[in-house]
Amino acid sequence: MSVATAAPTSFSPAGTFDAMASQVLEGRPISREQALSIVEASDLDLPAILAAGYRIRHHYFANSVQLYFLMNAKSGLCPEDCHYCSQSKVSEAPVPKYNILKRDDLMAAAGVAAERGAKTYCLVISARGPNEREMVAVETIVPEIKQKYDLDICACLGLLTADQAQRLKACGVDRVNHNLNSSEMHYAKICTTHTYADRVQTLRNVRDAGMEMCSGGIIGMGESRADIVSMAFDLAELEVESIPVNILNAIDGTPLEGTDSLSPQDALKALAMFRFVAPDKELRIAGGRELHLRSLQPMGLYVANSLFVGDYLTTQGQAPQADYDMITDLGFEITGSCEEVSG
């Protein structure tokens, strides 16, 4: 992470972060300056930050954890130049390349999602946006999945027009994922084939169509701490329902290969900051958690309330049983939709 000064090496005044949590729980949002103080805090403050963040998390979600299952329904072949992505046109990473999978494969994956206790099945394609063949495939398979399994459907199909969003809503898609990925200021450094504004417009099309918005980002792409805070506030202002926070896996063959990784402590402070900024929203520890948080993964669930179970798009996650054991050891429990928990 790019920073102007080294992180402090002393404790913040006692009660600093607990007071912020009380402020949030009283309905008074924290400021950008307060949010920045969380991600800039000393590592010595991490236990206090997580404890304060847990008060907020527990207020809205108790000890529930919602699981998501990710299906890479179309791999590689993407014309965009997102520098973090192994499937982009500028990537030399050896990833599988195939067009959208056939019905039987997508149904089989939905069965795995259900078996693993996932509430949401995430259908993802690599593309600037879906072509007509891909739209029809999604429109055909979604009703079948929902009829057979008790799964919510989240579609991640790239940039969407207003008409495409309406079609997804009509076929039964519950939520669309389209990450902002970084701050508006930093975005041009990680992608040049579309803009930050393009992504925001897709989210507005999703909202106008009556679907929930899932949008988060990737931390550790060379951005500043202020960039992470800016992204968090943009997501809060858009009122997205679900925020996945990825930690960059700097895959060999991508333009961000060799990018310095975040420490587990920095990643956890950033994750906690999202909880303070968006207190009642689903917060998911997404890609890179196994690589960067390592043995500290359980600590992330004191502020986050959601996980992907299984693999990611082109990288492996840890074994599902390890996730179940982690959740159980924390005294937490796998639950259904967030609406069932917080409603």
Automatic annotation (TrEMBL):
It comes from the Bacteria. The keyword S-adenosyl-L-methionine applies. Keywords: 2Fe-2S, 4Fe-4S, Biotin biosynthesis, Iron, Iron-sulfur, Metal-binding, S-adenosyl-L-methionine, Transferase. [4Fe-4S] cluster binds at C78, C82, C85. Its cofactor is [4Fe-4S] cluster; [2Fe-2S] cluster. The keyword Iron-sulfur applies. Binds 1 [4Fe-4S] cluster. The cluster is coordinated with 3 cysteines and an exchangeable S-adenosyl-L-methionine. Binds 1 [2Fe-2S] cluster. The cluster is coordinated with 3 cysteines and 1 arginine. Pathway: Cofactor biosynthesis; biotin biosynthesis; biotin from 7,8-diaminononanoate: step 2/2. GO terms for molecular function: 2 iron, 2 sulfur cluster binding; 4 iron, 4 sulfur cluster binding; biotin synthase activity; iron ion binding. It catalyses: (4R,5S)-dethiobiotin + (sulfur carrier)-SH + 2 reduced [2Fe-2S]-[ferredoxin] + 2 S-adenosyl-L-methionine = (sulfur carrier)-H + biotin + 2 5'-deoxyadenosine + 2 L-methionine + 2 oxidized [2Fe-2S]-[ferredoxin]. InterPro entries: Aldolase_TIM, BATS_dom, Biotin_synth/BioAB, Biotin_synthase, Elp3/MiaA/NifB-like_rSAM, rSAM, rSAM_sf. GO terms for biological process: biotin biosynthetic process. Its EC number is 2.8.1.6. It is an enzyme of class 2 (transferase). NCBIfam families: bioB. Belongs to the radical SAM superfamily. Biotin synthase family. Catalyzes the conversion of dethiobiotin (DTB) to biotin by the insertion of a sulfur atom into dethiobiotin via a radical-based mechanism. Homodimer. This is Biotin synthase. The lineage of its organism: Bacteria, Pseudomonadati, Planctomycetota, Planctomycetia, Pirellulales.
